[in-house]
Amino acid sequence: MNKKAIIITDGTESIQSIAKAISDLLNDYKVKIIPAEKFAGNDLLPANPFFIGCENPNPASFTYLEEMLSHINLASRKCGIFSTNEQTFEYLKNIIKDSEADLYDPLLIINTEDINSKTGEWIGKLI
């Protein structure tokens, strides 16, 4: 299993649930789910695709992630962003922009009953 993916989260319960659903669908990948406060830049190096999720814009735990993404080129990497709050997507798009990663349509999960069905469809488009 040489394929690796990473999911970086704000650590909130709802975002962790979505991250787990994403991980469960990536059968051909070794997946690492990591809260942003424990994220190190080299965690991202072997991963393609990578995913970033948070409930609200600008969580304090994302400070290092924001800084790192503004200085790294990820032009050939697929990136998926997800949240429970539509207003968060503009923030996530902005922190990814400078890295030039291939950003896919965001995944919005408002109702927890939709996690598996929406996540499966979204992963199918991204992978």
Short description:
The protein is of the alpha/beta class and 127 residues long. The chain is built from five helices and six strands, in the order E-H-E-H-E-H-E-H-E-E-H. It has helices at 13-25, 41-44, 63-69, 88-97, 115-126; strands spanning 4-9, 30-35, 50-53, 78-83, 102-103, 107-108.
Describe this structure in words.
This protein has 127 residues and is α/β, with parallel strands linked by helices. The chain has one domain (4-126): 3-Layer(aba) Sandwich (Rossmann fold). Helix content is 36%, strand content 20%. The chain has helices spanning 13-25, 41-44, 63-69, 88-97, 115-126; strands at residues 4-9, 30-35, 50-53, 78-83, 102-103, 107-108. The mean pLDDT is 95.
Topology:
Blueprint: E1 4-9, H1 13-25, E2 30-35, H2 41-44, E3 50-53, H3 63-69, E4 78-83, H4 88-97, E5 102-103, E6 107-108, H5 115-126
Parallel strand pairs: 1-2, 1-3, 3-4, 4-5, 4-6
- State Rg: 13 Å
Total of helices: 5
> Oligomerization state of this entry?
single chain
Helix content: 25-40%
Uncertain spans: none
Largest sheet: 6 strands, parallel
**What is the overall pLDDT average?**
95
Number of domains: 1
Helix/strand structural class: alpha/beta
Gross morphology:
globular
CATH architecture: 3-Layer(aba) Sandwich
CATH homologous superfamily assignment: Flavodoxin domain
Following the backbone from N to C, one meets helices and strands in this order, namely EHEHEHEHEEH
Q: Kindly, what is the distance between the CA atoms of the first and last residues, rounded to a whole number of angstroms?
A: 16 Å
CATH-assigned fold name:
Rossmann fold
The proportion of residues in beta strands is 15-25%
The CATH class name reads Alpha Beta
